[in-house]
Specification:
Length: 489
C-alpha cells in the first residue's frame, strides 16, 4: 500500500510555528477525499495532518514527511492559508525534493492561474471538487503516467454515493466541541464579496436519510452538538422541513447550528427547526442599508423590518439569532456605516460578527477592486510569498474612497466592544458553555482579547498596522492574529 499524506496548512508559519484563525473542526474537504480513496482503492492508505490544531511546526511536518516517505502529499489551499500552503510546499521541496505534491482547494479553484504563475511549487493541482479526480490522478501516477500541472475536478452529482468524511484520521480533542456536517453543496446567490457561487456547481443535496445515517454514526463521539457548514442551510425549505420532522421522529436529541438568510427563514420553518434541536442560526445581514444590500452586495430585497421579525421569532422560540456584518462596503457612506452600528447594537442579536472586506478571487468585489486598480494578481502572489506582510492579516482590505482601513478597524473594534462588553453577554456565554470546559476557556480568552485589543468574541481581529499600501492607497495590509470566525458569537 502506498501512503498518501493530506496536509491542512495553517494561515501561515511564524518562525516555523503554525498560526491560524480558528480550530473549529478539521478540513472536511480533505476528509471527504480520504474517505473516497479508502472506499474505492486498496492501493493507497491516506493520512491527514492538520498543522494548526496539532501545533505542528514547519520542521516537524518536514520530519513527518521524511519519516513516512509518502508516495504523494496533498495540500489544501484557500486564500486565507495561501502563505501556509506555499511555505509547506517549499519546505517539502527543500527537505524531500522527490515528493510528489498534489494541491487543490478553494483558492486554486478560484485562481487556477496561481499554479502557472508559480511553476514548480505544486506538481499537480486539481480545481473544484476532487473526490473522483484525485483518486484517478493517484492511480495514473502509480501507473507511471505523467500528470499535467492543472486538471479540472469532476464533481460527484449524487452526494449520497459519497462515503462520509473519514474522521477517524483526526484527533477529536484537537478541535472545538461538536462537528461539522454538510447537507448540500453549491450556492446560487451572487453576494459580491463571496466566492461560494463561483466555487462549485451545480447545487446538489444529500437525502435526509443519508444525512441522518451520518449523524447517527457520529452520535456516540460528538456530544450531540453539530454545525451545518452549508452556505445556506435553508435554501431548500421542504428538504429542511423533512429533516426536522425526521429528527423529531427519531428523537436523536442533538443540538445544532446553521447559517441562513433572512429571506429564507419564516416562522413555521424556524419553529420546526427549534423542535428538531436547532439552537443557533447565523444570518448574513452585511449592512443596515437596504440600498447597499440590494444594489451593491446583491444580497436580495429583504427589509430591515424583515430582519427584526426574524430576530424576534428566534427570540420567542429560544433560537440564538446571530448576524454577520461587513464595514466599508463599496460606495458606503458614513451615514450608512452609522446605521449599521445602530442596527448591530439595537436589534437584539444574540451575537454578531463584524468584519472588513477582503477581495477574494472569483468574487464581484475582486472585479471592482481590480477595475479600480486596488488589487491585481501581483498582490495575490506577493501576499502568498509573504511580501505584503506575515499572515492572513496581510491580505489586502478593501475600503471605499472616503474611508480608510485604520478608521474602519477603530469602528469595528468600538462596535464589538460595545456589543460584547455588557454584563448580559458574560451570562450568555456562561449559560451556553458551562458544560464544555474547553469552550469556556476559549470564551475567557476571547473576552480578554476583546478587552485588550477590541477583537470580538466572535471575530477577534488583532490588527497591527503595517503601512503597506496599494498603488491606489485604498487598501492596507495589516497583521491579524489568532481569532475565530463565523461560527460563534
Ligand atoms: C465550513 C467552512 C468554514 C469553517 C471551517 C473550515 C474548516 N475547518 O476547514 C469555519 C467556519 C471555521 C470557516 C472559517 C473561515 N472561512 Co470558511 N468556509 C467553510 C465552507 C462554508 C465550507 C467548507 C467545506 O467543508 N466545503 C465542502 C468541501 C467538500 O469542499 P472543499 O473544502 O472545497 O473541498 C473540496 C475541493 O476544494 C477539493 N480540495 C480541497 N482540498 C484539496 C486538496 C487537494 C490536494 C486536492 C486534490 C483537492 C482538494 O476537494 C474537496 C472535496 O471535493 C466554505 C464554503 C464552501 N462552500 O466550500 C467556506 C470557505 C472555504 N471559507 C472561507 C473563508 C474566507 C473563511 C474565513 C477566512 C472567514 C473569515 N473571514 O474569518 C475563515 C478562516 C478559517 C481558518 N481556517 O482559519 C472562504 C475561502 C475563500 C477562498 N478564496 O479561499 C470560503 C470558500 C467561503 C466563501 N464563500 O468565500 N470556514
Amino acid at each position: 500500500m502506498k501512503d498518501v499524506l493530506l496536509l491542512n496548512p495553517p494561515c501561515h508559519f511564524s518562525r516555523g510555528r503554525p498560526r491560524t484563525l480558528e480550530r473549529t473542526g478539521p478540513n472536511l474537504g480533505l476528509l471527504y477525499l480520504a474517505a473516497y480513496v479508502h472506499r474505492h482503492s486498496r492501493a493507497f492508505r491516506v493520512r491527514y495532518l492538520d498543522c494548526a490544531p496539532e501545533r505542528l511546526s514547519l520542521p516537524e511536518v518536514g520530519r513527518r514527511v521524511q519519516a513516512l516517505e509518502p508516495f504523494a502529499v496533498g495540500i489544501s489551499v484557500a486564500s486565507f492559508n495561501l502563505q501556509g500552503a506555499v511555505e509547506l510546499a517549499e519546505h517539502i521541496r527543500r527537505t524531500r525534493p522527490d515528493t510528489f505534491i498534489f494541491a487543490g482547494g478553494p483558492h486554486l479553484t478560484l485562481d487556477p492561474g496561481f499554479v502557472e504563475r508559480n511553476p514548480g511549487l505544486f506538481d499537480h493541482a486539481i480545481t473544484g471538487e476532487a473526490e473522483r479526480t484525485f483518486l484517478d490522478s493517484l492511480e495514473r501516477l502509480l501507473s507511471g503516467e505523467r500528470l499535467p500541472a492543472l486538471r479540472a475536478g469532476e464533481p460527484v452529482m449524487d452526494l449520497d454515493s459519497l462515503p462520509f468524511p473519514d474522521r477517524s484520521l483526526t484527533r477529536r480533542s484537537a478541535y472545538q466541541t461538536g462537528d461539522m456536517l454538510l447537507l448540500s453543496r453549491g450556492c446560487h446567490f451572487p453576494c459580491y464579496f463571496c466566492s461560494a457561487s463561483a466555487l462549485r456547481s451545480p447545487i446538489r443535496h444529500r437525502s435526509v436519510g443519508n444525512l441522518l445515517a451520518e449523524i447517527e454514526a457520529l452520535l456516540p463521539v460528538y456530544q450531540g452538538r453539530f454545525l451545518f457548514s452549508d452556505d445556506t442551510f435553508t435554501r431548500d425549505r421542504d428538504l429542511v422541513l423533512e429533516f426536522c420532522r425526521e429528527m423529531k421522529k427519531r428523537r436523536l436529541g442533538i443540538r445544532w447550528q446553521c447559517g441562513s438568510r433572512v429571506d429564507m427563514l419564516d416562522d413555521e420553518l424556524l419553529a420546526e427547526m427549534r423542535a428538531a434541536g436547532c439552537e443557533q442560526v447565523g444570518m448574513g445581514v452585511e449592512s443596515a442599508s437596504e440600498r447597499l444590500r440590494r444594489d451593491v452586495v446583491k444580497k436580495g430585497r429583504f427589509t430591515n423590518e424583515d430582519i427584526r421579525r426574524v430576530v424576534r421569532t428566534c427570540h420567542r422560540l429560544g433560537i440564538r439569532a446571530g448576524a454577520y456584518f461587513i464595514l466599508g462596503h463599496h460606495t458606503e457612506t458614513p451615514e450608512e456605516l452609522r446605521a449599521t452600528r445602530e442596527m448591530i447594537l439595537g436589534y437584539g442579536f444574540y451575537g454578531v460578527s463584524v468584519q472588513l472586506l477582503l477581495p477574494y478571487p472569483g468574487t464581484g468585489l475582486f472585479e471592482i477592486a481590480r477595475d479600480q486598480g486596488i488589487i491585481n494578481e501581483d498582490i495575490i502572489d506577493r501576499y502568498a510569498h509573504g511580501e505584503t506582510g506575515e499572515g492572513y492579516g496581510a491580505y489586502p482590505i478593501f475600503t471605499p474612497p472616503e474611508m480608510n482601513v485604520e478608521s474602519l478597524i477603530r469602528e469595528m473594534h468600538a462596535i464589538q466592544r460595545r456589543f460584547y462588553l455588557r454584563p448580559r453577554m458574560a451570562w450568555r456565554f456562561l449559560h451556553r458553555d458551562y458544560r464544555f470546559p474547553r469552550e469556556l476557556l476559549l470564551d475567557a480568552r476571547q473576552f480578554l482579547s476583546l478587552v485588550h485589543s477590541g477583537g470580538s468574541v466572535g471575530r477577534p481581529y488583532t490588527y497591527r498596522k503595517r503601512g503597506v499600501r496599494s498603488p491606489a492607497g485604498r487598501t492596507a495590509s495589516s497583521s491579524r492574529e489568532t481569532g475565530r470566525a463565523r461560527t460563534r458569537w
